[in-house]
Specification:
The complex is a heterodimer of chains A (93) and B (708). Chain A has 93 residues and is α/β, with parallel strands linked by helices. Chain A has a single domain, classed as 2-Layer Sandwich (Transcription Regulator spoIIAA). Chain A contains 4 helices and 5 strands, in the order ββαββαβαα. Chain B is of the alpha+beta class and 708 residues long. Chain B contains 24 helices and 23 strands. The chains are: A alpha/beta (93), B alpha+beta (708).
């Protein structure tokens, strides 16, 4: 299981840096846990990266779960109507 | 499908609707709402209204109509959503819950007159307080001459208000707005999210988020914008105001504005809330906005983009189209069959290993698949504990009124999933703990202020997975357990001797002893003295444990540790004579083979084991269950130190430990009859039945005999 920790400031620069980390994790196979507890600032680029990673994971049949989203991330997701996309009701694996 | 069955579906949908509506209202109360919240609440209530009409529950339908009217005004922006309005809606919600209970035949139809009047007044923009006083008067007015002129006055007032509402509703037609930031919108620190925030502050309401353009990672470009949004904007907001927001990004942002007339608004409203039994309309992908920078179509109704039900509804409502209802019996049958499969697989593995084929790859695969199948089957039975937690806010509201205490309820982990049976049976114990925390735990506002705390007490309810178990915590920031008083009471009631030396934790645990209550006056909330020991026995019946942490002046925490499922357990397989038994791993502390010097005989054939200075009673499983061939000499047997909540530590003596593994629990009650000292049975790999020991029962009897 790969673990990716999102940075405090999840802006365009951070998103660019994370693309490779996500790609590596995808290649490893199994499942990916994204620790989103530290996010203090996030913009559309960050949200889009999460959605994109989810899409890639879905296509490769890899489980990707965003764990412990910070209040900032939860609020940003709600604001942009992305809550149900980013945090689908988790089934007990 | 029989009428009863359809009606049962409606009842279930009522429950779901109530849960969704309450979650939404509480989101507002806790300032955690988003732009979808009011729509979610509205849809939930609208569905209940629709169904109640179809099934002929007239009282419920009439009541929900008024409720819905207020919600509709709130969602269209004609009624400001203030804390006062939320309080009215919460009150209306509680009444609605009572109505739903009534139609299920679990109570009488409630008297909703007062609440209905408040709702009507709210819809008409009158402050509800006035209505509460006015209404009896206006009711009298029709029957007495004296109040005739007053009646007229009311009538003319009413007409004035009708006109006002008429104006309102004509103003409730809306703009439809599509926003799609394009390439460059994110450049130079541009942030479309800020614009969305401004738009929502203007009163815009979310309809949909389009994520269809999101690429896979290999095509992802952090400079590119992939999202699009659709909003409705109340007509009172001018087009210029909307354009102002996007003034600086018009070059890089597609705006598409459409006007919607009232008729369309109604159509949308009815389509977005499907009747209870009908299938949800399939979501239709949102068409791409035109390529021009700003496309504007005034008075050209184009139903496609706006007439879609909000796909992005709250999770509970929106996920409806992706779930199916399954009869619980079918589910249990599936889980049972999977259990049988696990057993058969174990038997097959054993047979193959006897024939030297244990290392077959296919066998490993089958093992893996069976395990996954078992996990999946169990997860189908898993339910979020939300259904239990959602009852709590109402209990808190009622207790606030009854006790005059102020309570801030914090709920965490409500999506934590656990077995349906556990969810169903944990409700009562949890309710009692909450009542306890508010009634006994929290101090009165005055006492809190005197103690330097905020007037409002905090009750925290949380659930989380930890170490293969579910932990549910109920904590308060009240005064903590008054140990001196608990001790005194316990001595008075003869639960302990006056000179007993006890640790703080032991004193805390006394409140769960049978027949213990420290309430000065027995209140009707809690304090009947049957509460905590019932809580404890309920939790233990579920295979769980309860523990208490309390700090004087800082509050108490009650922690329930529950198993994830009741269908399998981790067990140690032991042999006694020719028999095989299972000891649940949760009870086992350690196992050892003692030296003769560690044993002490206390007469009557009974022995104690010295475990690092503490003497624990030894219970021979063979003797207790009447197995002749079992080992009687502890130095040749295996001693297993077990711990139970009621008796602390004691020792079980068995002949040997064979294995440790997960076993599928088969109920003795259902398949045979309850047997003392046994909690169930399982089938081993070799096809033999092994009985699961009831450690609690075995050790409590041994402790009792010792005390006698």
């Amino acid at each position: 299981m790969a673990r990716i920790i999102l940075p405090e400031t999840f802006d365009r620069g951070a998103a660019q840096a994370l693309v490779e980390e996500f790609n590596t994790a995808m290649r490893d196979g199994s499942s990916i846990v994204v620790d989103a507890s530290a996010v203090e600032r996030i913009g559309q680029a960050g949200l889009q990266l999460l959605l994109s990673a989810q899409k890639s994971a879905r296509l490769s049949e890899i489980t990707l779960a965003i764990k412990d989203p910070s209040d900032v991330l939860t609020e940003a997701a709600a604001l942009t109507g992305l809550s149900s996309h980013l945090f689908p009701i988790a089934a007990l694996a | 499908m029989q009428f009863d069955e359809i009606q049962e579906i409606f009842f279930q949908e009522c429950e779901e609707g109530l849960a969704a509506a309450e979650a939404g209202l509480l989101a507002y109360k806790n300032c955690k709402e988003d732009c979808e919240t009011i729509n979610t609440i509205f849809r939930a209530i609208h569905s209940i209204k629709g169904g109640s009409g179809a099934f002929g529950f007239d009282a419920l339908q009439a009541y929900t109509h008024n409720f819905e009217t207020v919600l509709d005004l709130a969602r269209s922006g004609d009624l400001l959503i203030t804390p006062a309005l939320i309080d009215v809606l919460l009150r209306a919600f509680d009444m609605l819950s009572d109505h739903v209970t009534a139609i299920r035949g679990e109570g009488d139809a409630p008297d909703d007159k007062e609440v209905t009047d408040i709702l009507k007044a709210t819809a008409e923009g009158r402050p509800p307080e006035i209505v509460a006083i006015e209404d009896p008067a206006s009711k009298q007015a029709g029957s007495t001459d004296l109040a005739f002129s007053f009646d007229d006055l009311m009538k003319s007032l009413g007409e004035a208000e009708v006109t006002a509402i008429g104006e309102h509703s004509s103003a409730s037609s809306q703009w439809s707005l599509e926003v799609r930031p394009g390439k460059g919108a994110l450049a130079n620190g541009g942030e479309p999210m800020l614009l969305i925030r401004e738009l929502l502050q203007l009163g815009a309401i979310f309809l949909d988020t389009d994520v269809s353009a999101i690429p896979t990672l290999d095509a992802y470009d952090p400079e590119e914008a992939y999202l699009g949004w659709t909003f409705t904007v109340p007509m009172r907001v001018t087009e210029a105001e909307v354009r102002d927001i996007f003034e600086f990004v018009l070059d890089s942002c597609d705006l598409h504005i459409e006007r919607r007339d009232d008729e369309q608004h109604d159509t949308e409203l009815h389509r977005s809330v499907a009747p209870p039994v009908a299938a949800e309309p399939a979501p239709v992908p949102m068409p791409q906005p035109p390529a021009t920078t700003v496309a504007e179509v005034v008075s050209a109704p184009s139903p496609q983009p706006v007439a879609q039900p909000a796909q992005n509804a709250s999770q509970s409502i929106g996920s409806g189209s992706q779930t199916i209802r399954v009869d619980l019996e079918k589910l249990d049958r599936l889980v049972n069959l999977v259990g049988e499969l696990v057993i058969t697989q174990a038997m097959l593995a054993q047979k193959l290993s006897v024939n030297g084929l244990a290392s077959l790859n296919e066998l490993t695969d089958l093992d893996q698949l069976t395990r996954e199948l078992q996990d999946s089957a169990m997860s189908i039975r898993a339910q979020p504990i939300k259904s239990v937690f959602s009852r709590v806010p109402r209990i808190v509201r009622e207790l606030e009124q009854q006790t005059g205490k102020q309570v801030i309820l914090q709920v965490e982990g409500e999506m934590t999933e656990l077995d349906k049976t556990v969810v169903e049976r944990i409700g009562d114990p949890l309710t009692h703990l909450i009542r306890n925390a508010i009634d006994h735990g929290l101090e009165s506002p005055d006492a809190r202020i005197a103690a330097g705390k905020p007037a409002a007490g905090v009750v925290r309810l949380s659930a989380e997975h930890r170490g293969g178990r579910i932990l549910i915590c109920v904590s308060d920031d009240g005064a903590g357990i008054n140990r001196e008083r608990v001790r005194q009471k316990a001595i008075e009631r003869g639960l302990i001797a006056a000179d007993t030396v006890m640790a703080d934790e032991e004193i805390d645990n006394l409140i769960m002893a049978a027949g213990f209550s420290t309430a000065e006056a027995v209140s009707n909330i809690s304090g009947r003295g049957v509460g905590m020991d019932v809580v404890r026995s309920n939790v233990e019946a579920l295979g769980g444990r309860i523990s208490i942490q309390s700090r004087p002046g800082q509050g108490s925490t009650f922690t329930l540790a529950l198993p994830l499922t009741l269908a399998i357990l981790d067990g140690m397989i032991v042999s006694v004579g020719a028999q095989t038994y299972i000891i649940p791993l949760t009870h086992i502390v350690e196992s050892l083979r003692p030296q003769a010097s560690e044993l002490k005989s206390i007469g009557n054939g009974r022995q104690m084991l010295n475990v690092r200075g503490t003497f624990l009673p030894i219970e021979s499983v063979g003797t207790r269950l009447g197995i002749d061939s079992s080992t009687q000499d502890p130095t040749k047997a295996v001693l297993i130190v077990v711990e139970t909540d009621s008796c602390g530590q004691s020792v079980l003596m068995v002949d040997a430990i064979l294995d440790q593994r997960q076993v599928v629990i088969k109920s003795l009650e259902t398949n045979y009859r309850p047997v003392d000292s046994l909690s169930g049975a399982t089938i081993l790999g070799d096809g033999r039945v092994a009985l699961i020991l009831d450690v609690e029962a075995l050790t409590s009897q041994s402790t009792r005999r010792l005390a006698a």
